[in-house]
């Protein structure tokens, strides 16, 4: 059995170690996450289109709309118990967003109103709104907007939308029931624990909320991994299990992490995303380096959005380093510090022409939104106070 054990369970309330184990059956599963969504056919019933939707229907604009927001119109007689503090109907419960939407047909509604029934292909953004998309909200129609990043463009209104509210497969289904293999300490009764990854040098990295262990002990049995060890079976399930192809990355970080730069370069974008996520969990918190430190970003392999975060993480914090995985965390680290660099730092982006050629306008089917371009990143970094030099 490895010494120290690979995994540790920390009590969610006290942070006390409950047990340590060599392996966790049910943490790595043979799936790819998140699950690719199924495209569906929706109909906007009694629609009065405007803007880009009108152009798509008329054929004067593209049929593809990108993302479409449906905002439920307020119903005056919604019970007070279902209203928010400012008196409006439950705002978040009457919002839905459709992704990668295309107009595929239309016809007159047939009630003499002159409105249209418009058919769309797309898929619903996974969220908890409206019972996870299974419960139609009480609304008097929908206002429609096309969305690009934070920009919204009015696209008309409709009386109803069909086929939007029904059960769908989980985008990130829970893992199977857990068995903790080779545990040093037996457990009994209910368990509420944070799961942490333990490196060979003893460094402990908490996995976060998506990997918590909450359930009851079903069985404790002697383990084949050692005479003094036990296997613990629980009815707990990991909320967001790791994909089986994550395991080599975790083995590498377990052994100490990357030692050479650009270990992520041969990976496809999806695996680069896994790299950034593993780097975030295994980051070593240390004081920001002194003001005036100059950082060099190797841009030779920045051919996609996730590659940028792999590269800037290494530029700031060395091989396997992390400096954010999206614009929110890039802002937090660049503008407010605590990411390894004192705000206002100088960043030299070498071979920036690679990113300029690859990070171009379009639709990103990884983030399901407008693609973040090279120019977007340059503008963002500059606005966050980074003294950027492109080479």
UniProtKB/TrEMBL annotation:
Q: Residue ranges of region Disordered?
A: 112-140
The UniProt regions of compositional bias labelled Basic and acidic residues, in chain numbering, are: 114-128
This protein's name: Barstar (Barnase inhibitor)
- According to its UniProt entry, this protein's organism is Micromonospora auratinigra
